[in-house]
Amino acid sequence: MKSGENKPAFYGDLKFMVAPGVYAPAEDTFLIADNLDVRAGEEVLEIGTGCGILAISAAKAGAKVVATDSNPAAVACAKENAKLNGVGGKIDFRLGNLFEPVAWKAFDLVIFNPPYLPASGELEGDSIGLACEGGRDGTAVISPFLKSLPRHLRKGGRAIFLLSSFSKSDECLKELSRLGFEFETKKEKLSFEELVLVKARMAE
Length: 204
What we know:
Blueprint: E1 7-11, E2 14-18, H1 27-34, E3 43-47, H2 53-60, E4 64-69, H3 72-84, E5 91-95, E6 107-112, H4 127-132, H5 142-148, E7 153-164, H6 169-178, E8 182-189, E9 194-201
């Protein structure tokens, strides 16, 4: 396959095309997808949608979905994949960083696969680098996400997101506790890191 061409990706019976400059789904994406619990009629926000796998899966389950990304190429790619999978009119795609595109709106579920690798400098400024690297210690994106999360969830609302052994996961979980969330975690060991899937819930 030539460089610069769209590359196919698959999840279950869904097919996606990943455009150049868009983060390709990997173990982290699929870990969230395998544990995604979405109910019909819920309002769902996915931050950092990439090629759209998680947003499209939520829409397929009957949710009303807003999907955002700070990368224009990702927004365009995810829109095309939504059409490809029959949910083109069921997802509101918006360009912007973290919660900026949704202002003060609250949701039933927030989904986020954040950039969590400590910045190496090799990818910095590149669109793929922005999708992977979380600053000097890996927490530059997840920390502001956690601080803003409570005001974007309804009472009893939920969030599902990833942490990594590279991104001070224990400290992030302590912060989640301080913010008043109840949560459960699931760990998956990879060859070079440990991923931590977090399912968090706002107090009723």
